[in-house]
Known about the structure:
2 copies of one chain form a homodimer. Chain A is of the alpha/beta class.
Amino acid sequence: MAKLARAAELLRAADHIVILSHRSPDGDTLGSAAALYRALRKLGKTVRCECADAVPKKYGYLFAGIESPEFDPEFVVSVDVADRKLLGTLNETYGDRVDLAVDHHASHVDFAREQYVDSRAAATCEIICDLIALLGMDADADMATAIYTGIVTDTGCLRYSNATPKSYRMAASMMERGADAAEINRRMFETKTRARVEMERAVMDSMTFYLDGKCAVIRITEEAVARSGAEEGDLEGLASLPRQIEGVLVGVTLRERPGGECKVSLRTQAPVDAAAICGEFGGGGHIRAAGCSLMAALDDAERAVVSAIEEALRDL
Amino acid sequence: MAKLARAAELLRAADHIVILSHRSPDGDTLGSAAALYRALRKLGKTVRCECADAVPKKYGYLFAGIESPEFDPEFVVSVDVADRKLLGTLNETYGDRVDLAVDHHASHVDFAREQYVDSRAAATCEIICDLIALLGMDADADMATAIYTGIVTDTGCLRYSNATPKSYRMAASMMERGADAAEINRRMFETKTRARVEMERAVMDSMTFYLDGKCAVIRITEEAVARSGAEEGDLEGLASLPRQIEGVLVGVTLRERPGGECKVSLRTQAPVDAAAICGEFGGGGHIRAAGCSLMAALDDAERAVVSAIEEALRDL
């Protein structure tokens, strides 16, 4: 399907619509679902949103007033879902009966009857915003809030390289339509749980520098996670801390896992190839962000990984 | 002076122009100066930028290729300077001979012969951008880089409540004119000095919670500053850390100073009045951000301030 107008046409013709978000939902998949739900409701349709995992508390405001009626779906649309596997437990129910997939992931693996995928969009919410316009509607304040949320959460509040001038301008329009940008950003970026603070304290305390400060290592231990009461969401982004330090070319995060496993995340600055280093341990990933897993105690894993990094830096 | 066109007229008529930034320069005063310098140079004028303090290394890219010729100034323009005192050591030389002040601070105290002050602008760079257009010019890539920098540094990358849809749209235009947004944001927001990391570690370690977690206190000790080698710039924003924690209504930062002084910064969430609490100790400020100074050891200051906060919370 080349044109978003076709997606609008399909939705306009449909009723009893289920909107699917991906598992471990983030601001973009939830913002897309909430905005599309509200637009379809305004067209008088019966709609519900589904997700394999619970909506994290921080995104609760997106769903204020949203209802979840029971019905047999006649049309299923997925938003921000790059692969049917990412439907999680909903894959079994819906994986082979998605009528329309709307997504922005370049890695999208076709699974729906029809799909609209635009990888130039920084967030699926950008596509949803255009789609709502094609449905003949102006975004209201609730839709604007949802779309703004998706744009800023997928771009680090417009900081990352995926944010385009279109992202900025769309965010501006959403503010004019009623999105409270400062409040959304406060919730998304300026609020930390106590557990998160404890984890930051623990990983900062664990930070060790190697190789003239070119390599920094932090540790996420089982004990620290248990003591802080941190959930997975509280650990998000910790792995990016070491690479932010001036002079650090390779940031390493060691995560202790049950059963003697140590998960390693590498973040690198140019020209260091994170995937190549992780490849030596049977892992992989992207050139600046990769991971691997070692069956080893943290100290041993640290020694092995730092030694591989030393090799890699020597070759530069 | 009501109209920015008048500022453009003054600049067009002038030559041998000195552009003044405020002391302890930030991205907005430096971005404004760099962008305006480049525009005036394109008009064939002789220009130099001056600032009482050295340009911090992180802003060095703004001044690539900018020259500092010797001449007797015929026209002096200040950018982002809210008060002549903020010229620092340049106040003596230039304080009473500023021909034009361009600023966005609501607290601007008139000191120049003429001024253009627009407090709706999130950054003085927004005004400079409009001014450059009035000088009959399109911003080139270097000007766009400087303007983008000023907008994002004064708005926390568009996160804060001062950012307007105009800020977003202007940032988008600057990207289209050549500002490398992702790289600028990486330098501004994703890069920390080793000293900064050490200071974050020290203040995280010092963090104490009071009043059922409604109050969090951190300490910046002389010893930690000396040990980390932190400069003033490395301490920027530390005071905002405690208030970011879920449940914290009052974040307190105690800064040990020479001579037995303890400087206190308060950051509050609604409805707590930071200025009122600091007022009890002879300080003041805004409703959500205020400060005061106590001649007391840190422990004593902490006790006194927490006790005042307890009172304030009881009254809510």
